[in-house]
Structure to design on (73 residues):
């Protein structure tokens, strides 16, 4: 089944909640998202991560990211 979802901050937050570690590398997020996202959507990941960092939703440490605030809960 081809992926049809778009990459949004809500989608990314859900990936963080499903993650098996406190800090997740972009490669994990891209691989997991790529399973269900529409073609080309995972290419937008770095821009969305930067945007979420700027809003204080994520924290970055050594190139990995941690969800620190969920604006939807």
């Amino acid at each position: 089944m081809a992926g049809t979802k778009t990459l949004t901050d809500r989608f990314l937050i859900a990936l963080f909640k499903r993650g098996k570690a406190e800090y997740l590398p972009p490669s994990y997020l891209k691989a997991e998202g790529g399973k269900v996202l529409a073609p080309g959507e995972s290419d937008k990941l770095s821009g969305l991560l930067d945007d979420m960092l700027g809003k204080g939703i994520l924290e970055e440490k050594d190139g990995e990211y941690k969800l620190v605030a969920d604006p939807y809960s």
The first strand starts at residue 58 and ends at 61. The mean pLDDT is 92.
